[in-house]
Amino acid sequence: MHSELRLLVNISGDKKSYFLANGTESYYKKLRVAYTDIHGDKTSEYLFFGFFTLCAATLEYSLNYLLTDYCVYQFGPERYKTYAEGYINLSFYKKLTTTPHILSNGQFSIDENNSSYKTLAELITLRNRILHNKEFLKEFDFPSLNSDDKKETIEFEIKIEPNHIETLAKDKCLTFGNALGDFKRYIMTPWINHELSEDEMIIKTSE
What pLDDT score does 160 carry? Predict the structure, then answer.
């Protein structure tokens, strides 16, 4: 699949021309295929996890592209990279919450009450928990024993919370996919088309 390109052409030929490749559609294409499989009840041990991690990778790559594209427009091809790297190195969650504000030079903000925004924030939190999972000692109550105890069996209970990866299921994956579709529809595509404005996920910044 060919990438869309942003072209900065120097028609006089006395300076370099540039392009910025937008490869996000390659990610979204794979998401649509996986979404169709999940929606059609195709099952495998890895499908939900594969779809989930693809959602997270697609969202972060999309945010990185948008911020880099903005910096190219704002600061020019010679100066953009320092600013772009600063934005790209923000935390994943911070990039999600601030990108519309940055792209619009403070005119718009993401609507934190929007259900798709909340779902994408949940995606980021769960992504961090699954990809950076760790275990520490946990306490449990064990019954007191003494030398006179003749019991052959001892009953006690250990409560183990499900691993975060086990929370991935069909409905959750489809919800993540739908939210990512809204991000593309209401934030990414309008920016690419120079039509960023108030919509389902973006609100005017309060003064």
Answer: 80
| Domain residue ranges in the chain | 4-133+162-204
Q: Where are the beta strands (DSSP E) in 63-176?
A: 108-110
CA distance 12 to 30: 40
Q: Give percent above pLDDT 90 in the chain.
A: 66
| Cα angle value 197/203/204 (rounded, 5°) | 80
Residue 177 three-state SS: helix
Three-state secondary-structure class, residue 147: coil
| Three-state SS at 133 | coil
In the predicted model, what is the mean pLDDT of residues 140-161?
74
What does the DSSP 8-state code read for residue 163? P
Its pTM stands at 0.86
Q: Helix, strand, or coil here: 12?
A: coil
Helices 115-131, 47-75: crossing angle, 10 deg rounding: 110
